[in-house]
Design brief:
alpha+beta, 28% helix, 35% strand, single chain, 145 residues, Nuclear Transport Factor 2, Chain: A, 4 helices
Length: 145
């Protein structure tokens, strides 16, 4: 795939999976042996763990949306900066709804092979959703242990 096709793939993943919450699309876009390098303890390192984490987030922030602020590609790598925002309107890790709007900024790099994401690196800036609500790190979901 060309660099432009790889960027288009990442835009589709961001829209379908991270903005629309279509976790079933993860299997279409991520290779079965996908690797998330340096995964935080609450993220897991498999497609199933990613689905669980995203479902937990969407459970507390049903309106969460991600947008790509900047995207560049070279060869099989795509680097992009995302901003995810959502409103805490449902219980999240035992925290009652607060109505608080939260924001997460991330720098991501994905390696694409044969039309699928095979490797990912992600670095978050600022505090995650749970920390913005409570001042504490989130518990570790069972699938990520």
């Amino acid at each position: 795939m060309s660099a432009e096709e790889n960027k288009a793939l990442i835009r589709r993943v961001t829209e379908e999976v991270f903005s629309q919450g279509k976790t079933e699309a993860i299997d279409r876009y991520y290779a079965p042996n996908w690797v998330l390098h340096d995964a935080p303890p609450n993220a897991g390192e498999s497609r199933d763990a990613l689905k669980q984490v995203l479902n937990v987030i969407r459970g507390g922030f049903p309106d969460v949306r991600a947008r790509i602020d900047l995207i560049v590609a070279e060869g099989d790598l795509v680097a992009y900066h995302t901003i995810s925002e959502g409103t805490h309107t449902k219980e999240y890790f035992g925290v009652a709804p607060t109505g608080k709007r939260v924001t997460l900024r991330q720098l991501n790099i994905d390696r694409i092979r044969d039309g699928k994401i095979v490797e990912s690196w992600s670095e978050s800036f600022g505090q995650g959703f749970h920390y913005q609500l409570t001042g504490k790190a989130p518990p570790v979901p069972a699938a990520a242990r």
